């Protein structure tokens, strides 16, 4: 079974875990998330999905302002200075079953993530509540560390909180302090299948939470600081969805721009704006496309980053 956002929320309620939920537009960074839930009284989190050279995977979940040095963390796990790197993007779908930007401790609810090690920031214990995405980055939920522990124990996890900023010496007489958290087995990703109807045009699996049924905008614990914002189509134009096919993506972008352009030009708009119509249309198109393109640029940047790490594991320079 692959959990959706709604199924996860239902499980939290079934476990009688107190939480508040807040809908917002899709966000890909902590900074973007903070615009919508930064004032609800909880601590934002950042979450890393990492792998080592033996194909063992880790989720590192920390407070947004915690400094995580991957080289130090790698040494503390007994993997050497360069033993950890970002996991490839396809591992998100194959192992965690979530799309880019949705990594959190909740992704470990899926059976495919049973061998993924979870490292939690001990700073969570000092917070009244902490904020995470519930398998989908169009919503955030806040809960305390006790509630998070209760959830993790319900899926057979023993929560381990560590000081992620510590840098203890590692040597012959000082063994790595986190070596016990290294997973016992490796995970080998299967060959990626050809795109089928079960995948959307971005290559993400709908089961990862992208197509979850919309949850009511009202939070379990309402807050005036959060406005429920829903993405709306502009003049009947569908939101732009990135495609793995560059040519198809360009055509979609041109079609969307053309549709917006034609929708802005009407007899009424010509009468109202006259000689300023061109500038008015240009401004409206920029306003309509700006957020789409910003999100796409972030997606491409993150994809290039993870793919760069992935390529590095396959390319071995010749030694002379």
UniProtKB/TrEMBL annotation:
Under CDD domains, the record lists:
PrdX_deacylase (cd04335)
Boundaries of every YbaK/aminoacyl-tRNA synthetase-associated domain copy = 24-149
Name any one GO molecular function.
aminoacyl-tRNA deacylase activity
Give the Gene3D superfamilies listed for this entry: YbaK/aminoacyl-tRNA synthetase-associated domain
Question: Which residues lie within the region annotated Disordered?
Answer: 165-231
> Cross-referenced SUPFAM superfamilies, in alphabetical order?
YbaK/ProRS associated domain (SSF55826)
Q: Record's InterPro entries?
A: ProX/PRXD1, YbaK/aa-tRNA-synt-asso_dom_sf, YbaK/aa-tRNA-synth-assoc-dom
Xref: Pfam families: tRNA_edit
Q: Where do Polar residues bias regions lie?
A: 196-215
Q: What does the sequence similarity comment in the record state about its family?
A: Belongs to the PRORSD1 family.
Q: What is this protein called?
A: YbaK/aminoacyl-tRNA synthetase-associated domain-containing protein
